[in-house]
Amino acid sequence: MSARSMLKVRPMGIGDLPGVQLIERSSFSTPWPAHAYRQELEGNRLAHYLVATLDRAIVGYGGIWVMVDEAHITTFAVHPGFRRRGIGERLLLALLDLSIARQAREATLEVRLSNLAARRLYEKYGFRPVGIRPRYYSDDGEDALIMTTPPLLEGEMQGRIVELREMLDAGPSPSSTADASDIGEAMVPDDAAEAEGVLAETSEARS
Length: 207
Ligand SMILES: CC(C)(COP(=O)(O)OP(=O)(O)OC[C@H]1O[C@@H](n2cnc3c(N)ncnc32)[C@H](O)[C@@H]1OP(=O)(O)O)[C@@H](O)C(=O)NCCC(=O)NCCS
Known about the structure:
By secondary structure, this protein is α+β, with helices and mostly antiparallel strands. It has 5 helices and 7 strands, in the order E-H-H-E-E-E-H-E-H-E-E-H. Strands 1-2-3-4-5-7-6 form a 7-stranded mixed sheet. Coenzyme A binds at residues 27, 76-78, 83-89, 111, 115-118, 120-121, 124, 206-207.
């Protein structure tokens, strides 16, 4: 991966699933199985999934369901070797852009109470706690915090998005500090889909 690699965000395709699964398994205690993503991509017309890539390698992904005028973030993760470089912010911005393009009025999600990294990221982008779903996570019974943005098209949120996007554009590229040693060729789309079908069968929303 060259130092001139550019971070790109684009729609997720079926060929991306092996790379997505590698990040999924290293990011969640109850990873979604490959067939859950396949079903989302092929069978759920409310669903929109994005991947972030450096060169052709997948370094993050996220998804939304747009239901009437609400965008619900269903999943969101960055490869452990590429965190704290603004990739999560780039992905979240792209998901918010997509939500606005799809006429969502606000964005919402669930996050584990203990997941402070994700909570800080969401707070930075205007999400605020609005409630608790008790024992939401099936593996350990942890509560979920429900977080929601202010109206996406109103001044507070628009101003925040513009300001944060400008700060990201002015900062270093994620690739300039990335350690590529822990991102394998299996992250690249179109490689053998050996990661398919090997995961647990649970698929609760975790974002
Ligand atoms: C949450 C996650 C997606 C963040 O991705 P990332 O690429 O590391 O995030 P960024 O580098 O864009 O971080 C942006 C902001 O997030 C917050 N943040 C990210 N990681 C953090 C950490 N470890 N501790 C505290 N704040 C953190 C900070 O507010 C940060 O802004 P700052 O740099 O100005 O402090 C990543 O940690 C991840 O994949 N976690 C595992 C999966 C997960 O929990 N997904 C969310 C499910 S709800």
